[in-house]
Design brief:
Radius of gyration: 23 Å
Strand order of the largest sheet: 6-5-7-1-8-9-2-10
Structural class: alpha/beta
Number of helices: 15
Strand content: 5-15%
Largest sheet: 8 strands, mixed
Helix content: 25-40%
Number of strands: 17
Distance between the termini: 31 Å
Length: 520
């Protein structure tokens, strides 16, 4: 039987772009069509942020507490196996179209090695077929130059919009309208180029097994879109961000929020942004949300091209298709942008799986809690025919294929776990300096059940507790309420149990005996 796998990972893409008010206001027809032809996991969450750590977890099936590549630029130790390694065991070359953001292990590398000068490294095990790193664009920059575009010396300036005051009223700091188009045409965008190259390469492999990891940078900022996607949606037609109370009230509610808005950050939201999220007005926020959704529509359009190609080449019913994201985007909720928060916008991400071998799973929605670390064991489960290759002891996650058959495995998780770093050992963050924390103390871990979310901050920073039944938007922190003490104790105990149970077991299940090595 032919085994073909297409794993599509979007960058900074929220779950409610496919299910919820945003999806209703700004439909994404191709991914929503795939939802009807596959299985949608409605309670899917990343286990960490930002890009590098989240992709390390997705590709290894490990919590960040175990792989420890916890920041952009923090190396992933080479002993950790990735999806790429597992595909090679199955006899399939794992092709990368895009980027993995996995920083190289420095052991054995010379200090001058270029791999130590860019955090956007190649995950071990993968063959980099099309290089599309965000800070080192590779062939796309060459393509733009060959097609007459003035690619600037500072490559990031390719994302500066053209001045076009007919498209919007809210403006960037330089006076250009926020919804001005990108300097490049839609047919030459990073998303279009990556799709074209992917289809070109796959067309040579139609009679073979293949594995393709296709990673789109969009709708990740800088928020600028080519025409017509820059004006695809009117800001007035979109739902407003989820906010409650004033910014001052939010900052007073917890030191995390106070430090988040206390210094410039997220300079990359758009080119020329001063980083002061607290200074964005409602009109600017609405315009930026419209551009984000326009970029999402652009990605959806090109995913549709890939799916159409698989159908026209008679590969669609031979191909396992997975569409997900590395993490979410706050998108103005709680007046926040980015993904470094313990809130839903950062962590709730989409997951669609179309398994052609399970037609009974088409169109179903599964509400069981799933985590980004479940992708790797799911792929191993689907590809491996040798039972010896189906050992899942090396993963913290679990295969999702049984769930898709309608059989919920015994003791399936009743909560999701996530964690993130808020500090930096190289250059202390505002969070660190304001709260007088070391890099090792500047972090949080969270536990989300159907009824509650508990967020534990390291370094004696007070916790957060949300009653999700009464407060699904996470507006009211109940951690300081006396009646919440028992709930806090219960959830913190569950979190401690979880971390102890899932600690690194790479050798702890081995034992040397007089009869030799015992392995579980």
């Amino acid at each position: 039987m032919t085994n073909k796998v297409l794993l599509i990972v979007l960058d900074q893409f929220r779950a409610d772009c496919l299910n919820g008010m945003l999806a209703d206001a700004a439909p994404l027809p191709n991914m929503q069509s795939l939802m009807q032809e596959g299985t949608t996991f409605t309670q899917h969450y990343t286990v960490t942020t930002p890009c590098g750590p989240s992709r390390a977890s997705l590709l290894t099936g490990l919590y960040a507490m175990n792989h420890r590549s916890v920041r952009n630029g923090t190396p992933l130790a080479r002993q950790h196996l990735t999806i790429g390694h597992h595909m090679r065991k199955a006899g399939i070359e794992p092709m990368l179209f895009g980027y993995t953001d996995v920083s190289a292990d420095p052991h054995g590398l010379h200090s001058n090695d270029p791999d130590l000068k860019n955090y956007e490294g190649l995950a071990p095990g993968f063959a980099e077929i099309v290089r599309m790193r965000f800070d080192a664009p590779g062939s796309w920059a060459g393509y733009l130059k060959a097609n007459g575009y003035p690619v600037p010396d500072d490559y990031q300036d390719v994302y500066k919009p053209k001045l076009d005051k007919t498209t919007a009223t809210a403006t960037y700091p330089d006076g250009s309208p926020i919804r001005s188009p990108a300097m490049y045409a839609a047919e030459d965008s990073d998303t279009a180029y990556l799709t074209n190259r992917t289809l070109q390469e796959l067309s040579a492999l139609e009679s073979q097994n293949w594995f393709a990891l296709l990673t789109y940078i969009r709708p990740h900022p800088p928020l600028v879109a080519p025409s017509p996607f820059n004006t695809m949606y009117s800001p007035d037609s979109l739902p407003a961000p989820k906010t409650a109370g004033s910014l001052d009230e939010l900052r007073a509610s917890h030191s995390f929020f106070d430090t988040f808005f206390g210094a410039p950050s997220h300079h990359g939201l758009f080119r020329g942004f001063n980083g002061r999220l607290d200074q964005l007005n409602e009109e600017q926020i609405a315009e930026l949300r419209a551009v984000y959704l326009g970029l999402a529509f652009e990605v959806d359009h090109h995913i549709g091209r890939v799916i159409d190609y698989l159908k026209s080449s008679n590969q669609y019913d031979d191909t396992l298709i997975i569409v997900t994201a590395d993490h979410g985007e706050m998108l103005g909720d709680h007046r926040m942008w980015g993904k470094g928060t313990p809130l839903n916008g950062s962590l709730h991400i989409p997951l669609i799986i179309r398994d052609p071998q399970q037609p009974n799973s088409f169109g179903q929605q599964i509400s069981a809690f799933t985590e980004s670390i479940d992708i790797a064991p799911t792929l191993v489960d689907w590809v491996s025919t040798d039972a010896a290759n189906k050992s899942f002891d090396s993963f913290n996650g679990s295969s999702l294929l049984p769930l898709m058959t309608g059989a919920t495995p015994e003791n399936w998780r009743s909560y999701v776990f996530a964690e993130a770093e808020l500090g930096d050992p190289h250059q202390a963050t505002h969070y660190q300096t304001t709260l007088n924390l070391s890099a090792a103390q500047a972090n949080f871990a969270l536990l989300k059940t159907h009824e509650h979310k508990y967020v534990h901050f390291n370094g004696a920073v007070p916790p957060m507790l949300f009653n999700l039944t009464d407060d699904p938007n996470e507006f009211k922190n109940l951690a300081s309420d006396s009646e919440s003490a028992q709930q806090l104790s219960r959830l913190s105990s569950i979190m401690l149990d979880h971390r102890m149970t899932h600690a690194n077991h790479s050798l702890s299940n081995f034992k040397l005996t007089c009869e030799g090595l015992f392995t579980r």
